[in-house]
Amino acid sequence: MPTESLFQENIPNTSRIIYTPSDFAKLSLLHLQEIGSRQATEPHTNERENLASYLFFMVRSGSGTLIYDGVKYPLTSGDCVFIDCKLPYSHSTAADDLWNLSWVHFNGPTAANIYQKYIQRGGLPAFRPQNFNGYLSIFYELYEIASKTSSTRDMELNTGISRLLALLMADSKHSEEAAPGTKKMNLTEIKHYLDENYNKKIALDDLAERYFINKYYLTRIFKEQFGMSINNYLLSVRITHAKNDLRFTDKSAEQIGIDCGIGEIYYFSRVFKKVEGMSVREYRRLWR
Known about the structure:
Blueprint: E1 14-18, H1 23-28, E2 31-39, E3 45-48, E4 54-61, E5 63-68, E6 71-76, E7 80-84, E8 89-93, E9 100-107, H2 111-120, E10 126-127, H3 132-147, H4 153-170, H5 184-196, H6 204-210, H7 215-226, H8 230-248, H9 253-259, H10 265-276, H11 280-287
Antiparallel strand pairs: 1-2, 2-9, 3-8, 4-7, 4-9, 5-6, 5-8, 7-10
């Protein structure tokens, strides 16, 4: 538990909480390391590397520059940054437009994989968010939680950081402008088609032809929007229907495999075990 002397830094125009999570939080949760805000009073540069931390910060006013892994990003009011602090980085306020920043340093056993997912989805180190006030609201919530004494504080911080990451994931799609005939509504239509026709044989070529979309482009933008490939999404829908039937009907496993679109029992059993980590029979016995 941090002492009160660690909470507020005695630097003018700075409000900072240096946080020490419990051993449980370090091993099991997304945990806070530091959170704060600062209005720059003179030009300055912060420079770090090899820090076991992930940094999110918002430019609330003013402007400046981020240099991350050798690449320079100009920043202005309303911009956000999300980076892995193991890589070298620095950020500097503009001399003639001193900035006001709010930041969150955090880490956790799943943080590296989450950051990699962010990058895979097209997330950028510096970006213009769709909902700046949403980030600001989460920042205030995290700051308030870190400021209080509570036996559930680490769990509450984990929840808040998870909400921050969910918002970052929503902002991580930076795909090129869609070509004619590939409007975003088509993806919703395609997803609905998969939801309704999961029990049928669905080929990528047929899907692309049905919606007048190049199959390679469709594959890419579907994954960007829904976070998984078309095949994996369809498998997820089929397995979900299979689990429902195993729990709430008396249909045989052979029939369920066919009804959910996976196929004959030998293939259905193999696929089900790969996805769920247990056999069809085990699942039915444990969950009924």
